[in-house]
Amino acid sequence: MNKKSIIENIRNKSGFICDMDGVIYHGDKILDGVKEFVSWLKKENKKFVFLTNSSERTIKELQGKLSRMGIDVGPEHFYTSALATASFLQSQKPNGTAYIIGEAGLINALYNIGYTSNNIDPDYVVMGEARSYSYEVIEKAVNLVNNGARLVGSNPDLTGPIENGIAPATKALISPIELATGKQAYFVGKPNPLMMRIALKRLGIQREETIIIGDRMDTDIVAGIEAEIDTCLVLSGISTKETIREFAYSPHYVLQGVNEIVKDFNK
Questions:
Q1: What keywords are assigned to this protein (predicted)?
Q2: Residues labelled catalytic
């Protein structure tokens, strides 16, 4: 299939599930063509949601970050692994307690569903991206898990893209706790089908009308394939063309970035 046909197929979709890191921005740097892409989504009345595996920021913070980059979208267009983790815990044990290792996005999401912080005998040890990560935190978490707390990770990402390279993400940070306790964490974020089902519900359309755009083969693309949603891998984040060959599955489409979706092929 030639590039023009690929772009036409993508443009014909009614719903867009877009990852953020590596698709919309790197760190605090917006990627090429993103403003035009979001303007096109609005102008064409497409349904879209920014679905991020990062649990670090609240919806308000994500809105503010995009606003500073010149992109204004409402809170209904965002969903994070922190919110999905809170939803999962609420369904498992309403009004429970947790030892939370993470930033504002995860902490607020759990507090908003009635969870309280507990570093003595919590129901769960919950981890997301954490800048306050330390040996003392690992030691505390290990002993809480050994004493019966269940271990939950907001996402299974090993790394995330930043302006000058990559940063360790939740799975990398939670691994020492898994290794020391012999317990496996349950990860809520992509590619967990929970995230895909929530995204489709938010869009209110069928999976056949939808495409997921992401930069990771191991979360975004496999999530789409397992949910039977068309997938588009963009090479503006973690993955390269060589990365694709490392996996048994392939994305439906590969683009350099979302800027190609709004490129005028008639010029």
A1: Hydrolase, Magnesium, Metal-binding
A2: 19, 21
